[in-house]
Predict the structure.
Amino acid sequence: MLFSNADEELEKLKLLKEEIDKINEIEVDKLFVSVDDISRIFQCSERRAREFMNLPGLNIVKLGSKPFVNINSLNEFTQQRIVMAEQ
């Protein structure tokens, strides 16, 4: 009985290590996008990209005077806007 629990725990640790390795492979510079990135992605002017980043509900981070948005937050925000537009 003791060994089966140890085997289960080892398997859980292996799975946890795999998840940690996946997280560590993520490049930090791809987690945040700038106004320039938004402008390029949406094919709009920088002014429109700034207006977009100032919309209520979109969480931005400012480093100095440059705003950045987390890519996951941007995804959730746009998905919510798509659902709202479909209704």
Notes: Residues 2-25 form the longest helix (24 residues). The beta strands are 32-34, 60-63, 66-70. The chain has a mean pLDDT of 83.
